[in-house]
Design goal:
Layout lengths: L5 H29 L21 H12 L2 H5 L6 H34 L5 H26 L11 H26 L9 H27 L26 H7 L1 H27 L6 H5 L1 H20 L10 H26 L11
Helix pairs in contact: 1-4, 1-6, 1-12, 5-6, 6-7, 6-12, 7-9, 7-12, 9-11, 11-12
Length: 358
């Protein structure tokens, strides 16, 4: 296995720029959700939608379209134009940033293609990356459309969860691809046990992130803004009561709340065990030197989760407060924890025919 080449390093930096932009995009998605802005733009115009309304007449026209939505009629019926402009900005900026990411990808792709920096081993990952990005945009619009009809005042929680988990998948795939080109082979030490333990943590964390998205979609934090009990009980009486069972897991706020809380504690315990478990099998490696990061992140994540639940009592509709700040940092912490585990998964992964390890 050879060190990565200068051209590989440049492609990797381009991909890492995409990782940074994706983190910002997901954070913007969180702000859009927390401010209730996601349904303010009722159409998807790929080109003309790049610009916001530029005069009073255009603003009134956009506002009138929003006034036809169930969210306005059933929830925000007292909105004035200034209120609408506030929520419109966050949804517009969220979509604008997605367009900027597409431009960065396209410009970088054309540049590296002309410079002949791409090798044949990179073609398949690049195609997958493009398809994942396009699919994410399509799912985003499907999610928004779910809140524009009937009596919906928000997007469907299951579609929000799908959109979020797919964003996590795109983020991790881009990061992994960049690591394949960025990290010299001397830092990679295949360790089957460490690899399996890290896979286990990632699977549990992905489930936890999905539960977190369902929590957000159902506004479930307010259903039990206490800790450690949920409505005065360890296992709420109304949890796991709906049929079929799989629907209960997707729709019952207290069931989701219970699972999200307890899986968080399990992740804390398992991450600590992971820390001590990998210590004996990865000594003297970059993995060993940085293995404290997931432990620190999971502990901070758990504390922010508890704080978010307790601060849910302070929520004031259409106002950004302590809960919104904490929820936003909680989401960011989840992303960073996932990326840290992907990093360790890569450092202990078995040999493969990757762009930099063949």
């Amino acid at each position: 296995m050879l060190p990565t080449s200068p051209s590989d390093q440049k492609v990797a930096n381009w991909l890492l720029t995409g990782v940074g932009m994706l983190i910002i995009q997901i954070a913007l998605g969180g702000i859009t959700r927390l401010t209730g802005s996601g349904l303010s733009i009722t159409e998807w115009e790929i080109v003309t939608g790049s610009l916001p309304p530029l005069n009073q007449e255009a603003w009134q026209e956009a506002f009138e379209k929003y006034r036809q939505t169930p969210q306005f009629r059933l929830l925000n019926f007292d909105f004035q134009l200034s209120d609408f402009q506030f929520i419109y900005f966050w949804e517009w900026f969220h979509r604008l940033w997605a367009r900027l990411m597409g431009m960065v990808f396209a410009i970088g792709f054309i540049y590296f293609l002309i410079k002949k920096y791409f090798r044949k081993e990179m073609v398949r990952p690049l195609i997958i990356l493009f398809l994942l990005g396009a699919l994410q945009g399509a799912v985003g619009w499907i999610m928004v459309a779910s809140g524009l009809t009937g009596d919906a005042v928000y997007v469907k929680p299951t579609r929000l969860g799908l959109h979020f988990i797919m964003a996590m998948g795109l983020l991790c795939y881009t990061f992994w691809f960049a690591l394949q080109l960025k990290v010299p082979s001397r830092h990679i030490h295949p360790q089957a046990k460490a690899f399996r333990l890290t896979v286990m943590l990632i699977v549990l964390l992905v489930i936890q992130l999905l539960l977190g998205a369902l929590m957000a979609g159902h506004k479930a934090a307010t259903a039990a803004a206490t800790w450690p009990l949920i409505q005065g009980e360890w296992l709420p009486e109304k949890a796991f009561t709906e049929s079929p069972f799989w629907m209960d897991l997707l729709e019952n706020k207290l069931s989701i709340h219970f699972l999200h809380r307890n899986l968080a504690m399990l992740l804390v315990i398992l991450t600590i065990f992971w820390f001590f478990g990998v210590e004996k099998i990865t000594r003297g490696t970059l993995f060993h030197a940085t293995r404290i990061i997931p432990v620190a992140l999971v502990l901070v994540q758990a504390m922010m989760g508890v704080a978010s639940v307790l601060m849910a009592q302070q929520i004031i509709p259409n106002r950004w407060g302590n809960f919104e700040w904490m929820a936003q940092f909680h989401q960011l912490g989840g992303m960073l924890l996932l990326l840290s585990l992907v990093w360790y998964l890569y450092l202990t992964s078995p040999p493969s025919q990757s762009p930099s390890r063949s």
